Amino acid sequence: MGLPPVAVMSRSLDSPPGGGPVSATHAHDFPQVVYVEAGRHLLRVEDRDWALSTGDALVIAPGTVIATGGQHTDEDTEMWTLFFAAEAVDPAATLLASWRAHPLLSSFAGTGRGGHRVTIPPEDRGTWLAHLTGLRTELLRRRDGYADAVRAHLTLLALQLSRLDLDIPFDVARDPLLAAVFHVIETRYREPISLNDVAVAVAQSSGHLTTVVRLRTGRSVGQWITERRMREARRLLADTDLAIGEIASRVGYRDPGYFTRRFHAEHHLAPRAWRLAGR
Fold first, then answer.
1. Do 147 and 225 have their domain in common?
2. What is the CATH number of the domain that holds 239?
3. Do residues 138 and 153 lie in contact, with contact meaning Cβ atoms separated by under 8 Å?
4. Is the confidence at residue 113, as pLDDT, over 80?
């Protein structure tokens, strides 16, 4: 089989000399990662400006609108841009449902369209850069076996992303009510909490809290609870050999069967199948 589309560009090695970015907006059908190796870069994605600095990677979902005219990059910034078709990681991922189900692509699918920042830990940045450099070299030289080498580099990059926490795509720090809601979720998602429990904890009525959170974030309190539980469930499935029932208990579900149904609804795979696919 041929290699599905994959492209990686280095600002210092591949950018044409002279001239800044043109003022335009565009959307890519592919998952995309913008990584700042050193320096600073400002990028507008959908309706949010992302200020990236050394070690930051912006994970961009397919279909997201990027405003090229909203970019600014310091002159000495070293950065990389990676695009790839989902089939390059999972050959069966030709439909939205199938690529969303793949554990290594969860970083791009977990919160729909938009950008999400991760910070690559300092101790992992050398490896991260080596994979990006390796991808570029393999794609340029196209020696025997390059397709397998590209898949290997890409898979390891996607795996590292799937293990890191994504930024919530809005500024909680400037909204005391949202900050309180997410604090309650973060500290109590391992319990069987509900909208009513969160509302009581932040001294709001359930109806008012539902309206405010959905208006300001685009998702309900229940969806945010589920998102946090699923993120921890994915981590436990990937990094441990705990039984499914134990994982369900650790992320706030008393009934393993219900946990399995919820996980399947979010990922289009049962927890065991997700674990096996990732390994």
1. no
2. 1.10.10.60
3. yes
4. no
Question: Does residue 191 sit in the same domain as residue 153?
Answer: no
Phi, psi (rounded to 5 degrees) for 192: -80, 65
Least Cα distance to 236 among 225, 221, 246, 224 occurs for 246
* Six token digits for residue 224: 């945010």
12 pLDDT band (50/70/90 cuts)?
A: confident
Amino acid at position 257, single letter? G
Strand order in the sheet with 56-60: 6-10, 78-84, 32-38, 56-60, 115-119
| Structural domain containing residue 97 | 6-162
- Angle between helical axes of 271-278 and 256-267 (0-180°, round to 10): 60
**At 50, phi and psi to the nearest 5?**
-110, 120
Q: Position of tokens 């149904």?
A: 261
Q: How far apart are CA 57 and CA 53, in angstroms?
A: 9
Residue 138 and residue 144: Cα distance in Å, rounded? 10
- Radius of gyration from C-alpha coordinates of the chain: 20
Instruction: Determine which of 38-42, 213-217, 240-244 has the lowest per-residue pLDDT on average.
Output: 213-217
Residue for token digits 């490896």? Answer: 127
Kindly indicate the confidence band of residue 202, based on its pLDDT and cuts at 50, 70 and 90: very high
